Amino acid sequence: MRTAAVTRKTAETEIAVTLNLDGTGKAKLATGVPFLDHMLDQVARHGMIALDVAAQGDLHIDAHHTVEDVGITIGQAVAKALGGKKGIRRFGHAYIPLDEALSRVVIDFSGRPGLEFHVPFTRGLIGEFDVDLVHEFFQGFVNHAQVTLHVDNLRGTNAHHQAETAFKAFGRALRMAVEPDPRAGGAVPSTKGTL
Q: Rounded to whole angstroms, how far apart are CA atoms 39 and 44?
């Protein structure tokens, strides 16, 4: 079973994440940030990941630390669940539309953290959610999952749609990258022999 449970506790947040990379897309989410819960539900559903996230953070200040630390903890959990990455596809990509919006996400479980994030949000807030925190989530994930991730919103005029297509595409790309490759014979997908 490719599962992991990770907790992270700081002076600002306390996060618990449990996931199964071979799940059915069901999620149990309680981050205290409703829009983040909505986006993580998309990742679980379209990534076919069983995902439980419980978070308590300093939301009386703002959502920054909670969103970033949830990204960090999910990244740690994915890395732990994958272990040595033997037999996975390694690369994943997806294009996802939602009405006028279209996003592309490409991921590589390279062992090297790198984020290219190009989402020109058309407004600064989605409800009470600061759109800058989308970048913070993905940066936290990238740094701790040790992946290269490109997130590009190719078009869109509705900021909610822009964000949702990015998270859905992330889920689909993640699903593709971590899937077992039946032709790989359990080998690490790198000419180096390690990732």
A: 9
Phi, psi values for residue 117, rounded to 5°: -120, 115
Q: What Cα–Cα distance (Å) separates residue 47 from each residue in 6, 63, 117, 126, 158?
A: 19, 24, 20, 23, 23
Q: Give the integer Cα–Cα distance in Å for 167 and 138.
A: 10
Give the integer Cα–Cα distance in Å for 96 and 155.
11
- Which residue reads 């998270």 in tokens? 167
CB count within 10 Å of CB 194 equals 8
The answer to whether 57 and 63 are in contact (CB under 8 A) is yes
Conformational region of residue 7, where left means phi above 0, alpha means psi within -120 to 50, and beta covers everything else: beta
As given in the structure block, the two tokens for residue 138 are 């993905």
pLDDT tens for 85-120 read 999 999 999 999 999 999 999 999 999 999 999 999
Joined together, the tokens standing for residue 166 give 């990015």
Q: What is the pTM of this model?
A: 0.98
Output the pLDDT for position 97: 98
What is the helix (H) or strand (E) element at residue 3, kind and residue range? Answer: strand 3-9
Please give the structure tokens belonging to residue 54: 């419980």
User: How far apart, in Å, are the Cα atoms of 45 and each of 4, 49, 78, 93, 111?
Assistant: 18, 7, 16, 16, 25
> CA torsion 182→188→191→195, rounded to 10°?
140
Residues in the chain: 195
